[in-house]
Amino acid sequence: MDDVLSFVFLMFAATLRVATPLVLCAMGGLFSEKSGIVDVGLEGKMLMAAFFAAATAAVTGSAWLGVAAAIVAAEAMALLHGFACITWRGNQVVSGVAINILAAGLTVVLGAAWFARGGQTPALESEQRLMPLFFPRAGDSILVYVALASVPLTWWIIERTRFGLRLRAVGEMPLAVDAAGISVAWLRYRAVLLCGLFAGLAGAYLSIAQNAGFSRDMTAGQGFIALAAIIFGKWRPFPAFGACLIFGLLDAVAIRLQGVEMPGMGEVPVQLIQALPYLLTMFLLAGFIGRAVAPKAAGVPYEKEH
To answer: Tell me: the pLDDT tens digits for 151-198?
Structure first.
């Protein structure tokens, strides 16, 4: 019985640990998407944040300075996206893809120039990382608890505050918001900046909590998985959180089954299990599972009428 309980606890802990960056990224993406700004660039924001978190922690020796650097880096990407899509009314998908390409290239170039390790940062010592707080085997760094708290916080902001009401309105009918004397651009910029904040925390978690440094393309599509979780959750915080847990569970199972022999099957093909989150992401983004209705003004640039 104790072995069963231990296994269940470790699987639950592994699921939360793997799902944490997805949850943080999804909650940030919700703010942007609710305001009408499609954010395909979640991947790039998270990757840039992961690099600057590890690089700063390696140079300064402070994990918290690493977290601060991650947030600044992600916010810079968020402002770039906002400038292209809100101020200049550019194509939001193209801008997001450009941010992903920029982050993928710039992190490698800066890593090679600063550390001469092929785009990687030096391995971080324990004092340079966010270590587990209560359960060393579970890997429960403080950002795991921040991710859990972000879900009800996001729900409360979007559903119960004046800012959230205006955010939902600007994502559905920006013309009505503008007619009420509220700045559509300022609302959307604030939403994009909130997205950058959460993406920065997600990136910091990847490189200085879950791992001990930055490696090339270490996000491995998790920004797209977070976007799929938003769609699967129909742009609502708690269902999106549930989708993140499903993805996290699939990853946790893949890790647990490595090298395991199954009766009548032999060794479990771990590669297939590892591919499941990405296959599920593909189906969700292609719209094969259910019908999800995005905010009506999502992806549509708003031009103030004169």
So the answer is: 999 999 999 999 999 999 999 999 999 999 999 999 999 999 999 999
Q: Is residue 70 a contact partner of residue 50, using CB atoms and an 8 Å limit?
A: yes
| CA 39 centroid distance within chain | 11
Reduce the DSSP state of residue 266 to 3 states and report it: strand
The two tokens of residue 198 are 């959460």
Q: Which superfamily, per CATH, for 11-285?
A: ABC transporter involved in vitamin B12 uptake, BtuC (1.10.3470.10)
How many CA within 13 A on the CB side of residue 241?
15
Please tell me the distance from the alpha carbon of residue 159 to that of residue 179, in angstroms, as a whole number. 22
Tell me how far apart the alpha carbons of residues 38 and 85 are, in angstroms, rounded to a whole number.
Answer: 9
Helix (H) or strand (E) holding 261: strand 261-262
* pTM (predicted TM-score): 0.93
Report the C-alpha gap between 88 and 169 in whole angstroms.
Answer: 21
Q: Where are the domains of the chain?
A: 11-285
User: Which residue's structure tokens are 């994502």?
Assistant: 171
Confirm if 146 and 19 have CB atoms less than 8 A apart. Answer: no
Distance CA 116, CA 110 (A): 9
